Amino acid sequence: MGESRQELLGWLNNLLQLNVTKVEQCGTGAALCQIYDSIYQDLPMSRVKFNVNTEYAYLQNFKILQNCFAKHQIERLVPVESLIKCKMQDNLEFLQWTKRFWDQYYPGGEYDAVARRKGAGAPAAAAPASAPTTSARTSGAGAARRGTTPTTAPTRSTAAVRTGGAASAALTQELNAMKDTVAGLERERDFYFSKLRDIEMLLQQACEADPELEKDEDSLIKQVQAILYSTEEGFEIPADDGVVDDQETF
Question: Is the pTM of this model over 0.85?
Answer without folding.
Answer: no
